[in-house]
Amino acid sequence: MTAVVRSELVRLRRRGVVLGWSGLTVLFAVLVNVVVFQVVEPGGAPAENGPGVSFPSAAELLGREGIVSGLGAAASFFGVTALAFWALAAASDHSSGLVRVLVAAEPRRWRLLLGKWTALALATAGATLLAVVVNVLVAPGAAAAGGWEPTAWGQDVVPVVLGAAVDLYLSLLVWGTLGLALATLTRSAGIAIGIGVGWVLLLEAVLGAAVSALRDWLPGTTISTLAAGGTADLSYSGALVLGLAYVAVAALVSGVVFSRRDITD
Amino acid sequence: MTAAVATASLRRTFGSVVAVDDLTTSLPRGGVIGLVGPNGSGKSTLIRMLLGLVRPSAGTAEVLGEPITDPRAYAGQVGALVEGPAFVPGLSARANLVSLARLRRLPVSRVDEVLGAVGLTGRDREPVRRFSLGMKQRLGIAAALLPDPALLVLDEPTNGLDPAGIVEIRALLQDLGRSGRTVVVSSHLLSEIESICTHLVVVRFGVLLYNGTVADLLARAGTHVDVAPEHAADTERLGRVLADAGWHVTTPAPGRLRVAADGDAAAAVNRAAAGAGITLRALTATRDTLESVFLQMTGGDGGEPAAGRAAAARPVPAAAEGGAR
C-alpha cells in the first residue's frame, strides 16, 4: 500500500497538476475574500447567494470566525477544483494507457485504487493548507479595503483556523472521492468533471427545487454544510455522516468497477 | 522446469467476437519467442489475459507456473510493453521510471540500469512529451525491464525506432533470451521475428496455427530454383526442357521460370539449360521466407475479422502443437 502511495505521489508532482491546483486555490482564496468583503454590507441586507457561492452574513464576518469565512463561501470552488484534479488523476491513467502498466505491476486493484485515494488525499491536504494560509493572509487586507473593522478576529484564532481547515478538508475529500468515482466509471476526465460541475450548478438546484425534502440530503448541500461547519437546516454531525456515506458509496462503486473491469485501454 | 506460459482451452469472447478460442499451448522457458498473427488474431487479448488485465471466459493458463487467476504471484517477475509505451507526458523519463520502481518496491538504482540498457542515459531528465516515438519506445522497454523479469512480453518492440535503434534493441532482446530469460515478442514484422526469435507461435482468429521452433518451420518451407534465360524468346523452350527432365515448372513472371526443387538442383538445372543450348542470365536457389510461410499458413489474411466472421468463418482448429497445419 505504501508503495502504491509513493508511486502515485511521484506522478502527482507533475508541473501541470501542482501549478494548476495551487494556482486555482490561490486565485479562489484571494477572489472570494475580495468579493465577500465588498458584496456583504455591514448592517445591510444579506447578500444574494450565487451558483457555488454562499455569502456569510455581516455578523458572521465580524465574528471571531469571520477571518476564515472566505473558505466556507468559496468551498464549492475549492471543491470543484478538487473534483477536477482527482478526476484528472484517475482518468488520465486510462486515457494514457498507464493503467495497463500499473495493473500489470500491481494486480491487486483495490490496493491500487486505495493507494491513489490516499495520495490524492495527501495532495488535497496540501491544497487545503494553501487555501487556509492564503485566506488568513488576504482576509485582513480585503476586510480593511471593504471598510470592515472586525475586532473579534484575534480571539481563539488557532482553533478557529484549524476548525475551518478541517471542515474544508473533509468537504474536499467528499468532492474528490466523487470525482475519482466518476472518472473511474467514465474513464474520461472531461465527462467526469462535466457531470460533477453540472450536478452542483444545475441538477442539484433543480432537484432541490422540485423535491424540497431532498434538498438537505443531496451531495452539494451536504458538502457545503460540511465546509461551513453546519447550518440551521443540517447539523455538522449530520453533514459529516452524510458526507462519509457519499464517500463510502463512491469508493465502493469505483472499487467494484475497477476491480472487475477488463483493462482494454 | 515448468513452461514460461501454458494455456489449456483458453477462451475469451467479447460479445459475439471470439478473440481467443480454445487455445492450448505452452511456451518454453528461455529464448526469444515470436507471437505472430494477422490483425485481430487475438495476440493482444492473449497477452492481456497473461498479464491479468483481461479475464478469460473459459479455460486456464499459467505464467511461470502460477495460475493467471492470481497474477500477483508472478507480477514481480514479469515485465511488459503492451500496445505501445504509456507514460505521464508531463513527467521526465526518470520520474516515470521512479514512479514504477516505487510501485514495484525496487531500488531507484535500478532505474539507472534500465536507462543505460536502452540507451537513454543523459536524456532521462527531459519530459516524456518531448520524446520521439522511438525514444518513448525505448522508455517503454526500460519500464518493462525494471523488475529484471524472468518473462518479458513486448508488443511491437521496435516500433518507431531508427535502423540503428532496431539493431540495438534486437541485440538487447537476444542477449536477454540467451541469459535464460523468456522474451515474448509480438510483431507484425516477420523479418524481425525471423532474425531474433528461436521459437514461434502463430495464431489466427484466436486459434493456434503453429507452436515450435523457427528452424523447424523453415525446414518445412518450400524451396525452388528461379531461372531466367538470356533471351526471353527462349523461355518457353527452356520450360519444356526442364519439364521433360522431370521438374515441375511454373512461370512467375514473363521471361522467368520457377523450378520446384531444392537448392542442390541448381547445378542440374544449369546443365540441362546448357545442354539445350540456352544461356542463363540468372539462376537463384531460394527458400521460402517466414513471411511466405506465414501467408500460406494464414491464408494471406492480414485484415481484422468482422464480428460475425470471427465466430462463423473460423477454420476448424487442428492439433497445431509443434507443427503447421
Automatic annotation (TrEMBL), chain A:
Which segments cross the bilayer? 16-40, 67-91, 112-137, 157-182, 189-214, 234-258
Q: Which domain of life is it from?
A: Bacteria
Alphabetic keyword roster: Membrane, Transmembrane, Transmembrane helix
**Protein name (record):** ABC-type transport system involved in multi-copper enzyme maturation, permease component
Say which species the protein is native to.
Geodermatophilus saharensis
Q: What is the lineage of its organism?
A: Bacteria, Bacillati, Actinomycetota, Actinomycetes, Geodermatophilales
From TrEMBL, chain B:
Instruction: Keywords in alphabetical order, please.
Output: ATP-binding, Nucleotide-binding, Transport
Which parts of the chain are coiled coil? none
Q: Does the keyword Calcium apply?
A: no
A single MF term (Gene Ontology) = ATP binding
Where would I find the ABC transporter domain in this sequence? 5-230
Per the UniProt record, one Pfam family is ABC_tran
Region of interest (Disordered), residue spans: 304-325
Q: In which residue ranges is the amino acid composition biased (Low complexity)?
A: 306-325
Q: Which SMART domains match?
A: AAA (SM00382)
Name the protein family: Belongs to the ABC transporter superfamily.
Q: Which PANTHER family match?
A: ABC TRANSPORTER, ATP-BINDING PROTEIN
- Name listed for the protein in its UniProt record: ABC-2 type transport system ATP-binding protein
